[in-house]
Amino acid sequence: MRFENYTIKDIAKALNLSTSTISRALRDSYEISPETKKIVLEYAEKINYRANPIARSLKERRSHSIGVIVSEIANNFFSQVINGVESVAYDKNFQIIISQTHESSVRERLNVEYLTSRSIDGLLIALSSETEDISYLQQLKERGFPIVFFDRVPQQFDTYKVVVNNQQGAYDATQHLIKLGKKKIAHLTNSKSLSITKDRLIGYKKALMANHIDFDPNLVKYCQHGGLHAAEIEKAVEELIRIGFDAIFISGDKLTTGYLHVIKQRPLAIQQDLAIAGFTNSNVVDLFSSKVTAIRQPAFEMGKMATELLIKLIETKYPIAEFETRVLPTELINND
């Protein structure tokens, strides 16, 4: 049986009122008396009336929906960002549609094309680790389509962006390891193309330089897919073990948990000798025998702020010419 929702015409017929009166009453218009509003609203509630979103979008030229594109929803950081997005979107009567790229630039573009074809009002996006060409996003923006970037952001793109202070977080993590007396600090990180990779590498290098420790590029291992594939983490860790290191700074949530899974297979003595600091919003790391000093990101706040800025773009009556990048602080949680 095909589901059929009640319409304004059904309510008008049942109450012997015009459709325009019903419509205004449901919108709480001042043109309709309180008594009539009461009758209409009580009947609408009785029949569980819900406004037709398609009809509403055609009338208002808005779908009241926002697209959100992340690499993986299962990533603790991104799931917390999405919670922040929802907290603002639903309060502002926007629905969200979430897509995953799994770090694929091809899938990212397909997701964007699909979402825009569904007439979303705007897009929140953290770029995939493979993404280098964002010209198609630039073309969307030039046509007036609202886009806000968060976490993984492009350099040359005039719009709002929300990030954390990646350089400071990386500096704090590396500095903590140095204070433990560590001198040969490895760095496990994401794709070279990502903004977070570049900024966290800078912070790592600055901490080494501040403590007169030479930077060794052999101790930096890149994972193109950010830890989605166990094999790339295993390969990177094996190479580091062959070189030798006494501490490691890890640049992402999936990388941190992936590294812990790999190192868990090693003798307990190795696990205990290697100090670890990493960007992670996961509480799972506390369950491992190796203690992790965590760099926490305000993911929920990032989602809220990015959504507020996107809705601002969607609802503005005049084009916005000046944009800013909002930078949120990180927090070092010492679990030693």
From TrEMBL:
Family annotation (Pfam families): LacI, Peripla_BP_4
HTH cro/C1-type domain residues: 5-50
Segments forming domain HTH lacI-type: 6-60
Gene3D superfamilies assigned to the protein according to its UniProt record, in alphabetical order: 3.40.50.2300, lambda repressor-like DNA-binding domains
Keyword DNA damage assigned: no
Keyword Ribonucleoprotein: no
Keyword vocabulary terms for this entry: DNA-binding, Transcription, Transcription regulation
Domain of life: Bacteria
Protein name: LacI family transcriptional regulator
Biological source species: Sphingobacterium zeae
